[in-house]
Write a structure and sequence with these properties.
By secondary structure, the chain is α/β, with parallel strands linked by helices. The protein has one domain: Rossmann fold, CATH 3.40.50.300. The strands form two sheets. A six-stranded mixed beta sheet has the order 6-7-8-3-9-10, sandwiched between helices. Helix 6 links the parallel strand 7 and strand 8. Helix 3 crosses helix 4. The two termini are about 15 Å apart.
């Protein structure tokens, strides 16, 4: 795997949370290499550190020690302004809890990352229309999150994550709270993104998503093992 083709790499990545005087070691000396265009699935029991690892890759959180390099940038030593701009331009994140803005319509939620980039109204409207078509929610454009099912909210979350056409998509248990039909729609979106050559890192227990993986990694007790063998 050539270094120049790496989307994400981590060296001795560790994360410790302090709760009062108690130290909780969530990640321990994690090494990771993800090539551009690769689909990586992170497996492991609840509490293993999967969400924490995704948060470190996105720059939402910072490691206690070690390096996390995404598209050539070591995020561990960057300030919050850089990280916010970097995420907006390069990383789409689909959260398990959707994290949609309740006071914005579906179209406005999807448009929000593009407004951050100060794109033109015409460009934003065209992109929102295209993304609504991709996730099959054209008829929901002017609805609010509370008017949607969980599956529909998750599809809006995918559309928002893709708004700025990021090179990297992160997804945390994207089908975990969904019924079979809605889960299938999410899998179809992931299949489309894989065909487009996106780099995707997803934590999941969903067997159909696992089948899309080029690389399977297993987290247990904060340590990572390759499960391709």
């Amino acid at each position: 795997m050539e270094g120049s083709n790496l989307a994400v790499s981590a060296q001795s990545l560790s994360k410790v949370y302090l709760i009062g005087e108690m130290k909780i070691e969530v990640l321990k000396q994690v090494d990771l290499a993800v090539a551009e265009g690769e689909v990586v699935v992170i497996l492991g029991p609840s509490g293993a550190g999967k969400t924490t690892l995704l948060n470190l890759i996105s720059g939402i959180d910072k490691p206690t020690s070690g390096k996390i390099v995404v598209f050539g940038e070591d995020l561990a030593d960057k300030d919050e302004d850089f990280l916010a701009e970097f995420r907006c331009n390069n990383v789409g994140f689909v959260f398990q809890a959707y994290n949609l803005v309740s006071t914005l319509t579906v179209a406005e939620n999807i448009a929000f990352p593009m407004e951050w980039q100060r794109k033109s109204t015409k460009e934003i409207e065209a992109r929102v229309k295209d993304l609504l078509s991709t996730v099959g929610l054209q008829h929901r454009a002017n609805h609010f999150p509370a008017q949607l099912s969980g599956g529909e909210q998750q599809r809006v979350a995918f559309a928002r994550a893709l708004a700025n056409d990021p090179q990297l998509l992160l997804a945390d248990e994207p089908t975990g709270n969904l019924d079979t039909a809605n889960g299938q729609k999410i899998i179809q979106i992931l299949q489309l993104l894989k065909a487009q050559g996106k780099t995707i890192i997803v934590s999941t227990h969903d067997e159909e998503i696992i089948q899309l993986a080029d690389q399977k990694l297993f987290l247990k007790d904060g340590q990572l093992a390759n499960k391709n063998e």
